[in-house]
Every structure is written in C-alpha cells, then in structure tokens.
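lol ok so funny story. i was supposed to be doing the assay writeup but got distracted and ended up predicting the structure for this chain instead. priorities right. anyway since i did it might as well share w the group, maybe its usefull for someone
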Amino acid sequence: HDRTLSWDTGQAQGHERFDDDDWLLTEIAAFVDLCSGETDAPSAEDGRAALRCALATAESARLGGTPVRVS
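and the output, tada:
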C-alpha cells in the first residue's frame, strides 16, 4: 500500500510518501479525529496508566524478561 500525506497550511504545501506504514496512517487518523472533535482526548488517568505500563516494560527488560506486575 502506498500512502501519501498531503498538507496545506496556507503558507506552505507538501507531500510525503509512506510505503506500507499502517502505524503512521493510524496515528495521523487519530490526530485528525482529535483535532476535528470526533474523538475525546485521552485523560490524565490514561496517561498515568500508559506510563505505568511503559515503566513495567522497562523493568521487565532490565530483569531479563521477568514479568512485572503493573499496579
């Protein structure tokens, strides 16, 4: 799948091509939905939960892959 991101800020225009980059398409679509008001912004609690998961992942990696409880 070829993906092309086009933008026009009124002062500049551009195009960027991304091949088979589904993660990027997903991120851009989520950003557009947020900016257009079609979805709610993540809450502070969502951010804290993501941080707890990221820290547990880092701790697990530091321990050689040992599972770490997320609390």
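The mean pLDDT is 84. The helical segments are 22-35, 44-62.
back to the writeup now i swear
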